[in-house]
Structures are given as structure tokens and as C-alpha cells.
Design a protein that fits this description.
By secondary structure, this protein is an alpha/beta fold. The chain contains ten helices and ten strands. NADPH dihydro-nicotinamide-adenine-dinucleotide phosphate binds next to helix 9.
Length: 290
């Protein structure tokens, strides 16, 4: 297990990053600054999160060399289409205050507007060729969408960011990503957003994960993050609390056995908010210019 992962185009990425979905702009600078102080060097944001500006502000304030921090962001669906997605890069780069984005991904496929989805991805290919992004990828793409996309485009996505936690290990998606040579990156990596599914259960209080953690003096969140890393996935846990941001990065001093990894895999019940095939174009979010 290493702390960095080499993507399919040779670019290296810190495996563990801080996610900032639902981190309010007014809390984002502090959360990202804390993460950078603790040792995180990878931040996952999105145009649709409305906090790219604050992510950039925290990076500048940190005093850490920009090139030592891996910035990942996402193009929102209302900006799909070739020219629109080229412009979406300009918007995100301007808000982040950077010339180049390390990893730019499509937030999801639009099955009912797949030509626009492909055109958006072709814009990512252009941005990659022009050196404006270091790697490109997708999010929430089901196996069938990966097949459709790769049949119509030239560059295999470096990453597919999907919901993945012990209660849904996404076997088909993990296999499809692997088949294409695409890194699986886990969102909701500690299953922390149960309100989507309405399910009362959360892996954060799961007795199996708790018992494993007790053996190492580790929390359930730490065990789950270790489980991702040992299975060669990237994970991007979110927190706005300094103590949890710190806790979630303190996962490099213990090692789960193969049996423990398998026991966590066996918790899979397919619990999900399953956004993969939602057509978000009907959602009322547009990404402002500034
Ligand atoms: P997570 O699994 O990261 O869970 C986050 C929740 O768990 C928050 O409520 C947080 O609360 C809480 N939490 C964090 N650390 C701990 C801890 N150590 N112990 C107990 N509770 C904890 O889910 P997310 O949905 O936030 O996913 C992570 C990231 O993935 C997002 O921030 C975003 O970057 C990305 N994402 C991408 C999506 C996509 O469509 N591509 C969709 C959803 C997320 P608190 O902040 O109060 O600590």
C-alpha cells in the first residue's frame, strides 16, 4: 500500500483526499487549511459545490507550493457540451485561482443527453492535450456508460468517482473500472451520508468494523479508509471538524489482514442513494461565472 496512486496516464495522485461536498463556503477555508496542515495534499471539490473559490483561498494561505497539492474538481451537467465544458474549465480555474487543474472529471453521465456528455468529455481531452489539466475522468458512470464513452472517445478516463463504502462495495462498477484501467475513487467512503438513502444504519457504527478497529485502537472511519487504501482505491472523506479531518488522515500506521478486508467486504448490502442514472439536467443548479 502506498500513499500515492499512479493514474493510467502516469500522473501520481495522493490516494487520500479531503472532500468538500456540503462544506459551506464559510467553513471551507478552515477545513482545507486544517487538512493541509495535517498532511493532506489532495482536495476534491466540484463546480456544483459552490466552494471552489474558498478551496483556492485555503491553498494560497497555506504557503504550500501549489504544485505539491493535487486539485480535483468536476464539471457540472449544465455545462456539458464541447464549448460549454471548455468554458467550465475557465470558470473553475478562475475561482480556484490556478492555471492548471490536476484532475477534471465529469460529475455524472447524462443518459438522456449522452451526445452532450461525450462532447463534454471531448472537451476534457482537448484540455488535457493543451496541458490545462493533468488528468481527466468521470464520476457516477455505470459500466454501460463507460463502454459507451470509451467507444466514442480517445482517452480512457483516469478515474471513475463512485459511491463506495462497506454497505455498497459496487462489485460490477469496480470490475468495469478495472477492466478499462480506470482508478476507482470512493465517494461517501465512510458511508457518512445516510440521509440520502433514508437508511438508519451506518457503517460508522457497524459492530464488525468497530471490533476490527478496537484491535488496533482505531475508529470505524479509520478502518474504512484503510480498507479502501489497501484495496488500491482513492478515498475522499469529508468533514468540517478539525478533529475528524485529523482522524481521517491518521491511517498510515496500521495494516488490516486479508481476513479483515474480506469481513468488511462481506458487509455489502447494496445500500445506496444510487444517483448514477438520475438526469440532473432537471435540477436547478447553474454554475455562476464568478
Ligand atoms: P463521507 O463518507 O465522507 O461522510 C461525510 C459525513 O461523515 C459528514 O456528515 C461528516 O460530518 C461525517 N464524518 C466525517 N468524518 C467522520 C468521522 N471520522 N467520524 C464520524 N463521522 C465523520 O461522505 P460524503 O458524501 O461527504 O463524501 C465524501 C466526498 O465525496 C464529498 O465531500 C465529495 O467531495 C465527494 N462526493 C462526490 C459525489 C459525486 O457525485 N461525485 C457525491 C457525494 C460526495 P462532519 O462534517 O460534521 O464531520
Amino acid at each position: 500500500m502506498t500513499t500515492t496512486i499512479t493514474l493510467n496516464n502516469g500522473v501520481t495522485m495522493p490516494a487520500l483526499g479531503l472532500g468538500v461536498f456540503q462544506t459551506p463556503p464559510e467553513q471551507t477555508v478552515a477545513a482545507v487549511q486544517t487538512a493541509l496542515e495535517v498532511g493532506y495534499r489532495h482536495i476534491d471539490t466540484a463546480a456544483a459545490y459552490g466552494n471552489e473559490r474558498e478551496v483556492g483561498e485555503a491553498i494560497r494561505r497555506s504557503g504550500i507550493d501549489r504544485d505539491d497539492i493535487f486539485i480535483e474538481t468536476k464539471v457540472w451537467v449544465t455545462d456539458y457540451g464541447y464549448d460549454q465544458t471548455l468554458h467550465a474549465f475557465d470558470k473553475s480555474a478562475r475561482k480556484l485561482g490556478v492555471d492548471r487543474i490536476d484532475l477534471l472529471i465529469l460529475h455524472q453521465a447524462l443518459p438522456a443527453h449522452f451526445d452532450r456528455t461525450v462532447a463534454a468529455y471531448q472537451a476534457l481531452e482537448k484540455l488535457l492535450a493543451d496541458g490545462k489539466v493533468r488528468a481527466i475522468g468521470v464520476s457516477n458512470f455505470l459500466p454501460i456508460r463507460l463502454d459507451e464513452l470509451t467507444a466514442r472517445t480517445d482517452i480512457v478516463p483516469a478515474v471513475n468517482q463512485i459511491e463506495l463504502h462497506p454497505y455498497n462495495i459496487r462489485p460490477q462498477s469496480q470490475a468495469a473500472n478495472a477492466k478499462h484501467g480506470i482508478l476507482t475513487q470512493a465517494w461517501a467512503p465512510i458511508g457518512g451520508i445516510r440521509h440520502y438513502s433514508g437508511s438508519p444504519q451506518t457503517p460508522l457504527t457497524d459492530p464488525v468494523i468497530t471490533a476490527i478497529g478496537d484491535q488496533y485502537g482505531k475508529t470505524t472511519a479509520q478502518v474504512m479508509l484503510r480498507w479502501h487504501l489497501q484495496q488500491s482505491r482513492s478515498a475522499i472523506p469529508k468533514s468540517v471538524r478539525a478533529e475528524r479531518i485529523t482522524e481521517n488522515f491518521d491511517v498510515f500506521d496500521f495494516h488490516l489482514t486479508d481476513d479483515e478486508l474480506a469481513r468488511i467486504d462481506a458487509l455489502h448490502i447494496g445500500d445506496t442513494m444510487n444517483p448514477d442514472e438520475m438526469d440532473f439536467l432537471s435540477f436547478d443548479i447553474t454554475v455562476p461565472e464568478a
